[in-house]
Amino acid sequence: MSTVKPTRTGDREAGEGGSAYHHGNLREELVEQALKLAEEGGLSAVSVRAAARLAGVSPAAPFRHFPDKMTLMTAVAEEAMRRFRAEIALALAQEVADDPMLRIRAIGRAYLDWARRNPTHFEIISSRRSIDFEGSPSLGRENAEIQAQIEALLLEAAQRGLLRCNDRHLIQIAARALVYGLARMLVDGHFPSWQVADAEIEGTMAKVLDLFVDGLVKERAAS
Amino acid sequence: MSTVKPTRTGDREAGEGGSAYHHGNLREELVEQALKLAEEGGLSAVSVRAAARLAGVSPAAPFRHFPDKMTLMTAVAEEAMRRFRAEIALALAQEVADDPMLRIRAIGRAYLDWARRNPTHFEIISSRRSIDFEGSPSLGRENAEIQAQIEALLLEAAQRGLLRCNDRHLIQIAARALVYGLARMLVDGHFPSWQVADAEIEGTMAKVLDLFVDGLVKERAAS
DNA sequence: AATGAATGTAATCGATGATTACATGATTGT
DNA sequence: ACAATCATGTAATCATCGATTACATTCATT
Fold first, then answer.
1. Which nucleotide has the shortest C1'-to-CA distance from A65?
2. Which residues of chain A have pLDDT under 70?
3. pLDDT over 90 percentage in chain B
């Protein structure tokens, strides 16, 4: 009547106001709390029960909204992917350069930056065991959109004769493998084995990205 | 008395022969069974209890040999790493080419090949959450030896003027990021999102590797 | 208001990692 | 040969987790 959505009791964000049997927004609250758990304690800290606890609800309550843990994690991944995509889109919008390879590099940097700042969220969207990627249209769509953006940039680069290799699909897989490998080396804690200190990680990843992109383009005039 | 090793009851490989209270070789048996569990059911199928079950021993027995699960998994990782290294060494020994970049590519192929055939074992040695990498001299040493081999090859390549970039450490990180990314994309099941069928994976990975290595070398003469 | 669907609770199950007290048997010193 | 000692395995138990079932409560619609 007074609230916008007729199907909801009302916002209980403050936590203690209204009558407490029906939460009113449990589904989204659980996703949010799961994201928080992931941030603070890593992937292993995310449990259905812990999310329920944080939401102030019984251990069985989440199963009214998600048939199993994987479905909850998939919803978490969808939210994380939404943020990931938004940040990539922002970086691309801020890259004023006309050079398509520079724009691809900007995407790569945004990718690595987000993974560095949200390691567990990155892990969640990358996993195919804790989430049902195939079963989520949202995840598939967002992923395909990133691919399409890069494909367009590669096509432009090819038309300008910048590329050393004609197989753009292969280039794209290579590019993704490189940034995915870097990001996973980071979240998996491999850099200490490479004598790369934490403070150097960002710079190292940027230089590796440059090295790779330079290797893609046809012989540059000079340097 | 009759057996070779005086400190052991004797081989109980067959399973039912001798007196059964003391297993005689539990530690190694547990590692072996854990490897088997990993092969057959993935990382999540590996549990201390399951390994104990397969070894025909009580759920608490493993904790006499490993203080916690992570220590068991670290021992598993050490055995997996040993096999991994052996296969890389074999591939390198079989590569007759004198070209250091071809030798590096051979290492990359062996790396990817092993990961493709032993996805869960690869996952275990790559993880830094289920194992204590830093706490294992064996793991650190084997990893450092691979790095040293590649460093030597890169140095040779640099001396022959083959490299486009002088920072060999950076090249090595990039190379590792690429193969690690490819291997993890495989293990994590990303290739379906890239329209790469299972049968094409091996070839695709090889081509991506070539694309990368070609990008490292100074402008080739012709095609 | 009454009814039925949506949503949350309570109780319970089986599996897991881990700990403690106890049992067994092999090793070793005399 | 024998007994002390230590390594190794067992039994029992705990807390946590994912999951299910039966029941309670609230909301929306009639």
1. C7
2. 1-22, 220-223
3. 87
Q: What confidence score (pLDDT) does residue B13 get? A: 40
B110 pLDDT band (50/70/90 cuts)? very high
Give the SS3 label for residue A217: strand
The Å distance, CA of B47 to C1' of C14, is 15
Report the predicted TM-score, pTM, of the whole model to 2 decimal places. Answer: 0.91
Two tokens, residue B19: 């007196």
The pair of structure tokens assigned to A4 is 């916008």
Q: What is the maximum span of chain A, computed from C-alpha positions, in angstroms? A: 72
- Burial (CB count <10 Å: 0-12, 13-18, 19+), residue B111: buried
| DSSP state at residue B217 | B
Whether B11 shows a pLDDT value over 70: the answer reads: no
CB interface of B with A, residues 103-132, below 8 Å? 126-129
Alpha helices, H only, B95-167: 100-117, 119-126, 137-159
Q: Which of residues 133-192 of A touch B (CB under 8 A)?
A: 133-134, 140, 143-144, 147, 164-165, 167, 169-174, 176-182, 184-185, 188-190, 192
How many CB atoms neighbour CB B84 within 10 A?
22
CB A163 within 8 A of CB A171: yes
Query: Among residues B127, B133, B86, which one has the least CA distance to residue B110?
Result: B86
Range B213-222 average pLDDT: 80
Q: What is the pLDDT of residue B20?
A: 59
d(CA B192, CA B190): 6
Alpha helices in A137-218 (DSSP H): 137-159, 168-187, 198-216
SS3 B163: strand
> What pLDDT sits at residue A64?
97
Token representation of residue B69 = 């699960």
Residue with tokens 């996952």: B123
B223 touches chain A (CB under 8 A): no
Verify if strand D has an atom below 7 Å from the CB of A11.
Answer: no
